[in-house]
Specification:
Recoverin, domain 1; two-stranded antiparallel ribbon; single chain; 2 domains; 298 residues; 7 strands; 13 helices; 3-stranded antiparallel β-sheet; mainly alpha
């Protein structure tokens, strides 16, 4: 039978394009003993993924506590055989919280892929071989550009935006055989590998300070309105408040903040759209901002 790409071989994306995330296999199929097709990250980005999770992934944050990923040990979800079930990184403690919580069952909070347990990702310099093994989503001894970008965003305080923009060109230097993937040595070779180059040339850029929600409500709203739509969804407001009040280290306080926002949200989201406009948020005395602040005890 002919395939969409005319090569006679069905690609991984083509083979599973009609499957939901939960029905996608935990390991790619073997094609007649050949190297398995590389697993696609697009399979694990649901179209209905909450905006707050989109922002967290975009800004290299943990999707549970919304703090920078690089600040803590990373963790990944795995099946009963220890194989990763999806490409997402969370803080290890937050991944354990997801595993131990009854909320949503044992599913990745981003892509809903089922998992059995959580594996800690070692530091790159602590155990390079084990690190590479865990990061290698397909288990084929090679890493794609996307695999490299995602793990470096998760573990290093780097300018990930520059890295994402410049990596396709840089990749050519280390991808010696031009197959769009690199090996353990090409990535981790001391002083010469891609990792050493990234550490030396992509220092992290400091973020702008968050405006004070009590004294500059419009500024606060606009700071977190990344797409300048004039609206924020409920999850975006929760994420913003967690970051503003630095609640990331305490899951109990994170959950309390979610409950506070949920309790007052319906008063302001009149059309049940899930989003709120800036005037409804910032109105003095009667806006969502003041209601949330009052619910927190001022």
């Amino acid at each position: 039978a002919c395939t969409a790409n005319g090569s006679g071989r069905v690609s991984f994306d083509e083979a599973f394009s009609n499957l939901s995330v939960s029905s996608a296999p935990s390991a790619p199929p073997i094609n007649g003993g050949l190297m398995p097709p590389r697993r696609s990250y697009s399979l694990y980005k649901p179209k209905d993924m909450p905006v707050a999770h989109q922002r967290a992934l975009e800004y290299a944050e943990c999707v549970v506590c919304f703090d920078n990923m690089w600040k803590e040990q990373a963790g990944v979800f795995c099946d009963a055989r220890g194989r990763r079930t999806c490409p997402h990184f969370l803080h290890h403690r937050c991944a354990l919280e997801v595993r131990n919580s009854n909320m949503g069952g044992k599913h990745c909070p981003v892509c809903r892929a089922e998992f059995v347990d959580v594996t800690e990702v070692p530091g790159i310099d602590d155990d390079p071989h084990e690190w590479f093994k865990i990061v290698d989503l397909n288990g084929d001894g090679r890493l794609s550009q996307r695999e490299v970008v995602e793990v470096l965003k998760a573990q290093l305080p780097i300018d990930y935006r520059r890295l994402e923009a410049e990596l396709p060109e840089l990749w050519k230097t280390w991808d010696v055989n031009k197959d769009n993937i690199i090996t353990h040595k090409e990535l981790l070779e001391p002083n010469k590998g891609l990792l050493a180059y990234v550490k030396a040339n992509f220092p992290r850029v400091d973020e702008d300070a968050i405006p004070d929600i009590r004294t500059d409500k419009h500024g606060w709203f606009n700071y977190f309105d990344y797409d300048k739509s004039g609206t924020l969804e409920q999850g975006e407001v929760v994420r913003a408040l967690i970051k503003t009040f630095r609640l990331s280290e305490d899951h109990t306080r994170i959950n309390s903040m979610r409950e506070i926002v949920n309790a007052v949200w319906g008063v302001f989201d009149f059309d049940n759209s899930g989003s709120i406009e800036i005037d409804e948020f910032a109105q003095a005395g009667d806006g969502l901002a003041d209601s949330i602040i009052a619910s927190m005890g001022g």
